[in-house]
Amino acid sequence: MQAEAIFTGTELLLGQIINTNAAFLSQELAKAGISIFRQVVVGDNLERIKEAIQEAGKRADLIIVCGGLGPTEDDLTREALAGALGLPLEENPSAREHIIRFFSLRDRPMPPQNLKQALFPRGAIPLDNPLGTAPGIFLEHNGKLYACLPGPPSEFRVMLTEKLLPLLQQYSTSKEIIFSRVLKITGLGESAVEEKIQDLLKGTNPTLATLASPGEIHLRITAKAKDTEAALDLIKPLEKEIRQRLKEHIFGSDGDTLEGVVGNLLTLKGLTLAVAESCTGGLLAHRLTNIPGSSAYFHQGIVAYNNKVKLQLLGVTTEILASRGAVSEEVALAMARGVRGLAGTDIGIGITGIAGPGGGTPAKPVGLVYLAIDYQGTTQVRRELFQGLREEIKWRATQSALDMLWRLLKG
Predict the structure, then answer these.
(1) Strand 207-213 and strand 250-253: pairing?
(2) pLDDT tens-digit profile of 47-63?
(3) Element (H, E) at 411
(4) Domain parsing of the chain, residue ranges
(5) What is the pLDDT, as a whole number, of residue 173?
(6) Count of Cβ atoms closer than 10 Å to residue 386 Cβ
(7) CATH fold label, 2-168
(8) Rounded to the nearest 5°, which phi and psi values hold at 67?
(9) Bridge pairing between strands 177-185 and 250-253
(10) At what angle do helices 258-269 and 390-410 cross, to 10 degrees?
């Protein structure tokens, strides 16, 4: 079964919200063995949505429209689907009952315009929405399948996985699923990774692709097979070969994060940590404390943005600041030692740098960052020169700090 997806909403075209539904849809369809060949974003315009549906119907077996099922004037999906297929809109009794019950259970008056959500193209059936007022729409017409799902991500995900995909099983003739394993790499750039695995990129089943992410490279291994177990059997030999070639740089797979892997190692070794940050403004502490249970190992974070804080709390001396400057190896080391001593932890990390866009000089350009670790009195420093905008430099600096810590702990 071949699918196309149409995402409606002017806010998507303007970049005002991120289309997380697109990634989730592709992942879930792949698991179900449904190939999605095209995704289209259309603004809130009736004729353009109709045209997108008609064009998709010429190519695909399954057309999924996301968004535009609300009760307002710019919610146009049901009208567009009916118009694209030349079908009248009719009120669906069970959809009407769902909408009335939704408001009744919450002891809220129902605005009359909400009954618009009970209008369906003739022959369509509703998909239950346990989280909102808008039922989904499912229609089989002239040998094609059409599904309309609500735009809010929580409603979209539940309706897709619990209502639409089980319904599609009776229509699917595919006996295969598509399964992917993602290996995550730190400390190497995309070209360096590709150089080590160039000969492995030409396979057909499984396939291998490189994906660049801020501060990381992801390698996606994808196999088609009759079930997950068979797909894993295809993936394992290739995964083993990749791990042998890149073993010093692979920190995890699939849903792993570098901060999560570091947290697991700190917990396993019974070690504690404190961080002192300047240019990253607390981002490293934020990432570390995003991990559930991080209070077992993370004790303290200091944002020493002003030099007075470096002097008063972290033991950075006026002599070092005068002779080496705030962005220097010596200051990063002093910050790591100072925060470790202040917090009484096993490990201290110090970060200082220039995130930009201003503040750089020929000797110390924007993107220059020094990172230091004090591990029970043993220290190491890394100098980095990052490219990118301010937020990218901050993220890459924290990624480099986590990379240093990961290598220290696993070593």
Answers:
(1) unpaired
(2) 999 999 999 999 999 99
(3) none
(4) 2-168, 177-253, 258-410
(5) 67
(6) 21
(7) Molybdenum Cofactor Biosythetic Enzyme; Chain A (3.40.980)
(8) 100, 170
(9) antiparallel
(10) 30
